[in-house]
Amino acid sequence: MSDEALSRALTDRIRSVPGVTGVYPTRPIVHAAAEAVASTFALQEPDVLVDVHRDGSALRIGAGIAVDDARPAPETVREVGERIRDLVDERTGAPADLVEVTIRLVEGIGGPVDESAGHDAGEPAATPG
Fold first, then answer.
1. Taking the complete model, does pTM exceed 0.85, yes or no?
2. Cα separations (Å) of 29 from 48, 75, 105, 126, 128?
3. pLDDT at residue 118 in the model
4. By three-state DSSP, how is residue 116 classified?
5. Quick check: 45 and 35 in contact, CB under 8 A?
6. Residue 62 to residue 26: CA distance in whole angstroms
7. Which of 6, 54, 65, 94 would you label with 25, given CA atoms 20 to 30 Å apart?
8. What is the band of 117 on the pLDDT scale with cuts at 50, 70, 90?
9. What span, in angstroms and rounded, lies between the C-alpha atoms of 56 and 69?
10. How far is CA 17 from CA 57, 68, 71, 81, 121, in A?
11. Residue 59 in contact with residue 96, Cβ under 8 Å?
C-alpha cells in the first residue's frame, strides 16, 4: 500500500471516531492553508491529511484533529491512536513505531487551541510503538 493510500485510509478511519469533527495536516497552519489552496486548484489530493513518514524500516504516523466538547478530548485522542494503530497493522502488516495525534481545534468551547500555550490540549499525545 502506498503512503498516499495509507494516509487516505487513515483519514477516513479517524473521521469515523466519535468526537472527531475534522482532520487536519500536522504541519503548521501556513503550510496547511497553502495545501488547501493547492487542493482547490487540483494541485494536490484533498484527502491526504495524515502524515506517513518512513525512515528505513521505521514508520511514523502524525494526525491533527478537531474534536467536539461532547466527549472528553483524552478519550477521543486515545481512540484515534488505537484506530490508527489497528489500520496500520491491518494494511501494512507491521506496527507503527510512533503515532502522534494533536488536537488542533476543540469545537463548542470558544475556538482554536493556542498551540504555543504549553502543556494543554494542544500538545501532541505521542504513543511509542
1. no
2. 15, 25, 12, 20, 25
3. 42
4. coil
5. no
6. 6
7. 94
8. very low
9. 39
10. 28, 11, 11, 10, 18
11. yes
